[in-house]
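User: I'm putting together a small comparison set for a docking exercise, and I want a reference complex before I start. The sequence is below, and the ligand is zinc ion. Could you produce the 3D structure with the ligand included, as structure tokens?
Assistant: Of course. I'll restate your input first, then give the structure tokens for the complex.
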Amino acid sequence: VRHLWFEDILLPGGWASGVEVGIANGRIASVAERPMEAGAERYAVGLPGLCNVHSHAFQRGMAGLSERRGLDAAASADDFWSWRDVMYRFLDHLTPDDIEAVAAQAFIEMLESGFTRVGEFHYLHNDTDGLRYSDPAETAVRIAAAAAATGIGLTLLPVFYAHSNFGGAPPLAGQRRFLSTVDNYAALWEASRAALQGDATIGIAPHSLRAVTPDQLASLLPLCLEGPIHIHAAEQVKEVAASVAFSGARPVEWLLDNAEVDRRWCIVHATHLSNAECDAMAASGAVAGLCPVTEANLGDGIFPAARYLAAQGAIGIGTDSNILIDAPAELRAAEYAQRLQHRSRNLLAGSDRLSVGGRLFTAAQAGGAQALGAEAAISVGASADIVTLDVNHISLTGRRGDLLLDSWIFAGRAGCVQDVWRHGRKVVIGGKHRIADAAAAQFRTTLRRLISL
Ligand SMILES: [Zn+2]
């Protein structure tokens, strides 16, 4: 057993001071307020690691490549759909080795920013011709290997994807690497489960109501009787209109009426909600998987976070496209979108918790753990996933408690995260991951090749 001692630490019941955390076999064996004993490692501030509920790791490789007007000559405007065409072209060349190198870099950046577990919404299953690899879980094996090498907790969400739009529309050429049938998906899901290492877990992910028909959705869910269920919904206005044209219902409305949406579900984005959908989704117990940085980057729209949180809705945060992997930036963007929309401030503070940072961090931590089927809190029996902040950092000087979270989220320059413990192992030391240099070298090799093509 090794002992960490914290001057201040955020426990499930709130901030506590002078706390010793015992770690054994990767898990938290004890949490006790007591004076520091000889042999303990001393830290100023400890936080539970955040769960990144929604990532497409490979997209880290195209970050920054689609910020120019008119990349897609066929599109009438630069929007989500023209971005998606750039992504499809990027996929023409990505090999399993590339996927592993890009994922490792993405996972290192997640750990360095305070995420200790990732929900990898993994849909890149097929080779560049659209055929299954000889091992149907070839790319899932690469994701699991990158997670094991970097130490990040993994909740793998193998995606089922079959159509280009509502009503079972045939897939587009650019979607060939994603496609499954209900029959061959079962084999892929089983092979993906077999690829998991350590404390990695698995859920299931019907891609969206665009890509999956109602019949397919009903056939898929029994494959995974426990573990999280993730789906994209209502990210785009065009998608909402297509849903209404197809079924008469908006996407989230349709899910709430036709699927047994409960605490196992994470509805990713859920950007465009009517007030009735917003309140019903909050009451369902499902987690809203918010990806505010990506949603801003893609011009998706603004999730009604103030109303949803007031209705006690659960949220998690995700880095989605991985355009910029930064946990505090996601929380900041969630609040800033509300400020810009409502021309007011501190909209996501609670009535009982007045600090926006404290409220958002705590909500995203609890909801994120729920969405990834994890017990990511600093409590006995949970995985020892702990983030420490550098209180000597210029942005954090003199702060304690929720003021520290507010300052990290809204005013923290790079370098606030000090050390990160993941499953009882210190993987980030002084802000830098143990294998950051080696992983970056591989990532550079991969990116130089892909960009030169
Ligand atoms: Zn996504």
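DSSP finds 14 helices and 17 strands in the chain. The mean pLDDT is 96.
User: Thanks, that's exactly what I needed.
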